[in-house]
Design brief:
eight-stranded antiparallel barrel; 1 helix; 10 strands; disordered N terminus
Length: 233
């Protein structure tokens, strides 16, 4: 009889301890509904395509952009395993070059990368979380280029715009220090397969406009390592 009483007491004590541990573990409750992430990324985007007006011959176009980008991501958690992310970054670059022949050119570049899709947590613990996102990727850039005429009779403004879409994915790791803030790093990969491209040139010495717009299937890829800080709401 004493053994049965002792066994019952041990089972009761173990049950109470387990219940207290479950209540104390914040990861077992409802997840944070909304995360705001601020990050710095290093995107490299490579475009390899051919374009041109039909029946004119096609022109091969290789465009590579490599920048330091500031990003902002919104992460909505529907549960402990699944969420939805909107991850975007913006970058800008400019260049002015001068020559001994009193000529100069100017080039500016603006672009953005966006990834929208569901997030699956491969691991979701108190301190460590590993998110995997798969969705749609969008890449846009616009640049303005001033090319001087070697004869000194003016020059030409050239404006190019690209909008590319395709599938994208990222795999990350989050280190949670408390219930309010965490640091993270991840790598974004994307393959763009469709492209809208426009080139417009305006000659300073005349009123001639030369414009070309293309819709095409392409092969382009992007890789972007990211590091940043997340805030949980």
């Amino acid at each position: 009889m004493k053994k049965l009483v002792l066994l019952a007491a041990l089972i009761l004590a173990a049950g109470l301890a387990f219940a207290q541990e479950e209540a104390a573990a914040p990861s077992e409750g409802k997840p944070e509904v909304f995360d705001l992430e601020i990050n710095v990324g290093f995107p490299i985007h490579w475009t390899n395509a051919e374009h041109g007006d039909d029946p004119a011959p096609l022109y091969e176009d290789k465009t590579v952009s490599a920048n330091t980008a500031l990003g902002l991501a919104l992460l909505f958690n529907f549960g402990r395993k699944v969420g939805l992310t909107l991850d975007a970054d913006f970058f800008f670059g400019g260049k002015i070059a001068g020559f001994a022949s009193n000529e100069s050119n100017y080039n500016s570049l603006f672009g953005t990368n966006v990834l929208l899709g569901p997030v699956v947590y491969i691991y979701n613990g108190n301190f460590l979380r590993i998110p995997l996102a798969i969705g749609a990727h969008l890449y846009y850039f616009s640049d303005d280029l001033w090319v001087p005429d070697v004869s000194g009779a003016g020059g030409q403004w050239i404006k190019r715009q690209d909008l590319q879409v395709g599938p994208g994915v990222y795999l990350g790791i989050q280190f949670h220090f408390n219930n309010n803030i965490y640091i993270f790093s991840r790598t974004n990969l994307a393959i763009d397969i469709f492209r809208w491209h426009k080139t417009k040139g305006i000659f300073a010495s005349a009123t001639t406009d030369d414009s070309d717009t293309d819709l095409e299937f392409i092969f382009a890829w992007e890789v972007k390592p990211v590091i940043g800080i997340g805030v949980k709401f």
